[in-house]
Design a protein that fits this description.
InterPro entries: DUF1307, YehR-like_sf. The protein is of the alpha+beta class. It is about 20% helix and about 40% strand. It has one domain (about 1-130): YehR-like fold, CATH 3.30.1830. It starts with a strand and ends with a strand.
Length: about 140
């Protein structure tokens, strides 16, 4: 995601997905004009495909990630562990979240967060497409 300032129009929903290294990732942006208002992420992690031996290994490897998201205003994060896959979900409400604080989280990519007041949908989509994500129809 990259930051910018623009708004206007009604809210839209744009989804992108990528399957890589045993993980299927879906990112949904909710935006008004170019301004992202909310972002939802769901990662389905196949233990075998991602090199995790079993549920216990996944819990010990992925579990510490949950702590870094706790107490961040506007961010909800959880991981549900099944027998062969784990499902990680995260939602960021940009009307509440502090961009600088969110930018420090693992997996976040922002530019110029010191002066940013919003996340640009256009720039976020460009970054995702460069990373191999495809738009979900």
């Amino acid at each position: 995601m990259l930051a910018a300032c623009a708004s206007g129009g009604s809210e839209t929903q744009t989804s992108y997905s990528l399957t890589q290294n045993g993980t299927e990732s879906t990112i949904i942006f909710y935006a008004t004009g170019d301004k992202v208002t909310k972002q939802a992420v769901e990662n389905t992690i196949d233990y075998e495909g991602s090199g995790l031996a079993d549920k216990e290994t996944a819990e010990s490897t992925l579990g510490p990630l949950v702590g870094q998201f706790q107490g961040i205003e506007g961010v909800e994060h959880s991981i549900e562990y099944g027998d062969t896959t784990a499902v990680e979900t995260m939602t960021v409400d940009y009307s509440v979240a502090n961009l600088q604080e969110v930018a420090e989280l693992l997996g976040s990519s922002y530019s110029d967060t010191d002066n940013a007041s919003a996340v640009s949908l256009k720039k976020s989509v460009e970054l995702l497409e460069k990373s191999g994500y495809t738009k979900v129809k």
